[in-house]
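Reopening this one. Same input as before:
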Amino acid sequence: MAPVNTQRGATLIELLVATALLGSIAVLSAQLVIQSTRLMDSAARASRNPDLILATEWIRRDLYEARSVMGEGLGWSDGPLVVGKQSGGWLALAPFEGKLMRIDVPTGSLIPENRVILQGVVGWRWRVSDGKAVQIELQSFANPHAHQNLTGAASYRLDRRTERLAFALRGRPGGGSW
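Same output, byte for byte:
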């Protein structure tokens, strides 16, 4: 007669292996949910004020093309950030009446080109740290037009956002430059 198999269900080792597999799947899926939530949050913040993204790109490009920074080593300043351009002339970034202005004076010209690169600015400061990097803190409304609804009445919910930017000095042959 053939032996009868009396074993029913799973062994303890099989249950432990299955539990470990399910636990690792749960941990990996939780990490995926956390990362996707962070990505959605940053995309939502960026989509609220695309002007802020453009303004930071203007600042990055202007500082990348700069030859020098005036006011280096003075600590934090809330005044204009003035840089000498590699092509000559100078450029200033300064807050004025709730707007971040870009003032460009080409070489040989006395007439500046003024451009508003961001509206809704409520705070601005910058410094050159260790002669190696420019740090900028820019506080603005998340959506500068959110304070007006369709009737023109003021809204009471204005979200502010602080951007902290850092731009490092780069060495080039013939001297230091950005």
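So the earlier flakiness isn't reproducible anymore. For the record, The chain has two helices and ten strands.
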